[in-house]
Amino acid sequence: MDLQHSLALIVPEEILSVGGLVLLLAAAWLGDKASRGISVAAVVVIAAAAAFTVPVLCGGNMGADTQAFFGQLRVDAFAAYSKLLIYAAAAAALMIAPRFFDRWNAMRAEYPVLIVFAVLGMSIMVSASDLMALYIGLEMNSLAAYVLAAFLRTDSRSEEAGLKYFVLGALASGILLYGMSLTYGFAGTTSFEGIRAALSGGLSTGALFGLIFVLAGLAFKIAAVPFHMWTPDVYEGAPTPVTTFFATAPKVAAVSLLMRVSLDAFGGHADAWRQVVTFAALASIVVGALGAIGQDNIKRLLAYSSINNVGFILVGLAAATVEGASAMLVYLVIYVAMSIGSFVAVLMLRDAEGNQIESIADLAGLSRTNPAIAWCLLLLMLSLAGIPPLFGFWGKLVVFKAAVDAGMVLLATIAIAASVIGAFYYLKVGKVMFFDEPANKAQGRNDWAHWTLLIASTVFISPLGYLLTGWLGNLADAASAALFLTA
Fold it and tell me: In angstroms, rounded to a whole number, what is the distance separating the alpha carbons of residues 17 and 119?
């Protein structure tokens, strides 16, 4: 394996690195007046990285030829699938930001630069096949995310969100690092392939503790119960474009990283971690659903919704099969579309003065004052609830089918029953918008970027989305096959 081959594999990361540095210099020289132009350039940089990623996924790349830097990174179809989702979510977060920050006179040139470097960290995360590369990518993403959460320096809620995210994120990183240290101590290597081989003879008590700590650290990043406590406060306090970013791109990166660690490094000991994942899945489904019922802030409701959806995704991981991994990847695509659409709809809810509307009570009668947004938001809510014939139903169906096929009928049954709880708070939003007397709050106008993303997301999660099931399933199958090549 030579340096030239490794550099050829990481062209997307090279584009993001060079592009991020150039944009950083542009931000320093041109100042905040060039923030919109830098945002457009950031989207172009991310699109260029995506262009070099598509052939890897379509070609189903896997095997030894996908390893870079002596096994530190694995640029296979699984990584490419996750990267494309991350790139799409990041581009959406850049498109919707200027209108929001202009209201606060806070659109700064650093915002797109931070997004690009966060995306670079996530690209390294999903390609990591070594604990060292994992930690580098994770921290690069986290450092940018801490700043993004507190980006509105004039808003006390944003400052609080940034501080909470930083403190709890540092704690999670410490837990993860301790687990990695234990794993290295008992396996004698940081390579995922080497860890799998070293533990093939059996999982010692020390290695088991290392596994548990690693899973706990990653559970924080995906906001799985019982490491979910930061999510509602950060989602509510952070600027809404940043919340949109947090709910999508980092979630995809963390779930993908959890899949690679569990199914690759510790794939030979699925029975050891399956109980932990099963508990986290069911607890996330129930806590997410019950926690959302009493919320009167739409962003906090969506935060609990994200916890609930993570639970359903983990059902596929508990199956520990190729079909389960493929179902998780399909669910992630649908979840990203639903989340982007939901938060864009929230962004479009402004009063006559341009202030953001976040209270669910202020959505009363929205179907009569702004029917287009009301209908789109209703369809997105119903899709998040998994109600057929919307596309969100398909995501839950494939995950439950994978669990049943893996012999985990009880898990699937409990998850299906618990999903009924979640339908209540989604329907509550619809009831307020369509049956309550108009509050006449949402009167602000919106730009083409918001309407484009909202309409595209709504069409994708509509019954028309089922036309993509074959194509999406084939891509997910190719990506999951790459993940299980060493299994």
Answer: 10
Calculate the alpha carbon distances from 160 to 149, 157, 206, 479 in Å: 9, 5, 37, 39
- Cis peptide leading into residue 388 (ω within 30°): no
Q: Is the dihedral of CA 407, 212, 139, 153 positive or negative?
A: positive
Residue 126 CA to residue 483 CA, distance in Å, equals 11
Q: How confident is the model at residue 42 (pLDDT cuts 50, 70, 90)?
A: very high
DSSP single-letter state for residue 62: -
Query: How many C-beta atoms surround the C-beta of residue 34 within 10 A?
Result: 15
Query: Average pLDDT for residues 57-78, to the nearest whole number?
Result: 84
Q: Which residues are CB-contacts of 55 (< 8 A; sequence separation ≥ 6)?
A: none
Cα gap 81→478, rounded to integer Å: 9
CA angle 476–482–484, rounded 5-degree value: 100
68: part of which helix (H) or strand (E)? Answer: strand 67-68
Q: Kind of pairing, strands 67-68 and 73-74? A: antiparallel
Exposed, middle or buried: residue 401 (CB in 10 Å: 0-12, 13-18, 19+)? middle
Percent helix, strand, coil in the chain, to 5, is 80, 0, 20
Answer yes or no: are the C-beta atoms of 264 and 129 closer than 8 Å. Answer: yes
Distance CA 337, CA 248 (A): 9
pLDDT digit string (tens) for 152-195?
Answer: 877 778 888 888 888 888 888 899 999 999 999 988 888 888 88
Contact 161, 131 (CB under 8 A): no
**Secondary structure element (H or E) that encloses residue 115, with its range:** helix 110-127
Half-sphere exposure of 242 (CA within 13 A, CB side): 26
What count of other Cβ atoms lies within 10 Å of the Cβ of residue 431?
A: 12
Of 211 and 63, more confident: 211
> Cα torsion for 150, 120, 254, 248, to the nearest 10°?
60
